[in-house]
Amino acid sequence: MTQSVVVQVGQCGNQVGCRFWDLALREHAHVNKKGIYDEALSSFFRNVDTRKNNGEGSDIAGGKIRCLKARAVLIDMEEGVVNEILQGPLRDVFDSTQLITDVSGSGNNWAVGHKVYGSAYREQIVERLRKAAEHCDCLQCFFLIHSMGGGTGSGLGSCVLNLLEDEFPEVCRFVTAVYPSAEDDVITSPYNSVLAMRELTEHADCVLPVENQSLVDIVNKIKHMANTGKPGSVIKKDSTLISGQGGVSKSEKPFDAMNNIVANLLLNLTSSARFEGCLNMDLNEITMNLVPFPRLHYLVSSLTPLYTLADVNVPTRRLDQMFTDAFSKDHQLIRADPKHSLYLACALMVRGNVQVSDLRRNIERLKPSLPFISWNQEGWKTGLCSVPPVGHSHSLLALANNTCVRPTFIDLRDRFTRLYKKKAHLHHYLHVEGMEQGCFTEAMSSLSSLIEEYGQLDATKNLLMPDAPRLNIAT
Description:
By secondary structure, the chain is α/β, with parallel strands linked by helices. The chain has helices at about 10-30, 40, 80-85, 110-120, 120-135, 150-165, 190-205, 210-225, 255-270, 270-275, 285-290, 320-325, 355-365, 405-420, 425-430, 435-460, and strands spanning about 5-10, 45-50, 60, 70, 70-75, 100, 140-145, 170-180, 205-210, 300-305, 345-350, 380-385, 395-400.
């Protein structure tokens, strides 16, 4: 069994990470009734005897669960969110050796996060990462969670990504990056996002972009389901959709429901690593099968159901309908239109009591409507995990490497250009030591070249060759 480490950076990264650990613990508790530390738990948790090793604890290989510690490193240059986690129900899952905090924050400035804090905390971050890695028998993957719009998430988050490549070049780097909406209240978010994009393009193995606006749309859709008044269409009182805050009420925090959807994405992505299945998908297989060109590693994710743990009392979707949902725009975590763009590859990660024949049947049914690149017509990767999400009979995560991400990147470039043409707010960045105007032009050039690469592939979709007639062999 392999292990993975989650690195959560900045306010958004830590809030999403907190939801992931909460949901993962609930899922394992539902399956693991006897409280035995097994291989499933070991993939993301250590079993620690806190009475030994001067209170720091020693790992216990098996047997009864003593104290579970998340394989995680929590980094934020404002201590508020991390302190909140340490005072909440998850306080025992982390300890001081996993945390790095400061008090002043990055002021929504990529340069402060990347250059100032990246330099000041480099050795501390490397030490925490090495310590987390040393507790793993077979480290397979780092999951980095951060936002693109803020200073710490984008700046320090992309700096941590570089450190991971330097220190652990052989270990796969998965990034879940939350992109700001066009109406974002952080005026400098286009700068931060484009500067971070260059680092993600150069140093990540796989990026799962998540758009704030898509999350808002999904949450509104679920709330609408709750308010239609139909019997059985209500959000349950202690639903994880709103982080156990007592229903959709005034006590709900604005981002709880949105963070929960991203945590649900990670929960399903890691299900094969955490549980048994008849067709287990290794996390390294995702990059191997879905990323034919190293820079084009941005995957569109779609989830069905969108809510977890039976948050909403609606009937379970029929299996075939679930596959149809996964290819509809309503279920994507990024606003894009894959069906009118070109698929380079696609992965389906199914959970629950689903047969391989169900998978094959639905792929054959959907294939005619999905334009795949000519040299990869059979570019499907499938995984079957036998343990469904709590409260559901089955679920599906679709990951598509598709040229439809191009308009999102063009929109981001346009927002960057509008600011940059006026040199607006540029002085805040150029005052930071080590930050030069060339960083902006290089980041812009990197993004433009990425857009062009996707565009060149997209232009081939009208040149798709029909299937060549099969040879008839005389017998």
